[in-house]
Amino acid sequence: MVDTDVGANARDRQDDRNGEAVSRFVERFAAQLTDAGMQRMAARVFAQLLASDGGAMTSAELGEALRISPAAVSGAVSYLTQVNMVSREREPGSRRDRYVLHNELWYETFTRRDQVLTLWEKTLREGAATLGADSPAGARIAETAAFFEFLQGEMLAMMDRWRDHRKKLGLD
Questions:
Q1: In sequence order, what are the residues at sequence separation of 6 or more whose Cβ sits closer than 8 angstroms to the Cβ of residue 117?
Q2: What are the φ and ψ backbone dihedral angles of 99, each rounded to 5 degrees?
Q3: Which tens digit of pLDDT belongs to each residue from 6-56?
Q4: Contact predicate 111/74, CB 8 Å
Q5: Are strands 86-90 and 97-101 parallel, antiparallel or unpaired?
């Protein structure tokens, strides 16, 4: 349940900010996410949620903040929900939905990436065996599988270090 006082305090803080500067930040970060491969409108909605104090907004709030249509919000939220970057929650005492960033968003994103690397590594190893490790293609694919295995191990170790670092920063 959302504490209305917390929501009111967050709105007050946001009202004190330079809205134009916040919009520039949202658009700049969204452009970087788009350059990295995210859908443009999903990137804008995600960046707006990230920039909101509560990490949650209604469709109407997103539409107003980004100056986009309800259909654009809906499409972006559908994508972000599908890739587990946001979830949909019913606003208490209302029939409106709020779109909420996941806790430990980046950790969850990298954990899912780890699962993709595991799948790719397995498929690549099968491909290397199919092509023959002594063939140029088989050797290239085996090296790619080894790279993903290495990357996966490094990411797991890095996430462990991140958890320790979060504790040191008092973010737990």
A1: 148, 151, 152, 155
A2: -105, 125
A3: 444 444 455 568 889 999 999 999 999 999 999 999 999 999 999 999 999
A4: no
A5: antiparallel
What spatial distance separates the first Cα and last Cα of the chain, rounded to whole Å?
A: 21
Q: Which residue has tokens 């599908």?
A: 82
**In the predicted model, what is the mean pLDDT of residues 158-172?**
89
Dist CA 86 CA 107 (whole Å): 13
Q: How many Cβ atoms are within 10 Å of 82's Cβ, its own excluded?
A: 10
CB 115 within 8 A of CB 155: no
Whether 96 and 102 have beta carbons less than 8 Å apart is answered as: no
Which tens digits make up the pLDDT trace of 93-122? 888 889 999 767 776 676 677 777 888 899
C-alpha 169/C-alpha 127 separation (Å) is: 44
Measured distance CA(106)–CA(112) in Å, rounded: 10
Q: Name the token pair of 140.
A: 């290239």
Q: pTM of the predicted model, to two decimals?
A: 0.71
Listed in sequence order, the residues at least 6 apart from 86 whose beta carbon sits closer than 8 Å to its beta carbon are 46, 49, 77, 80, 99, 100, 101, 102
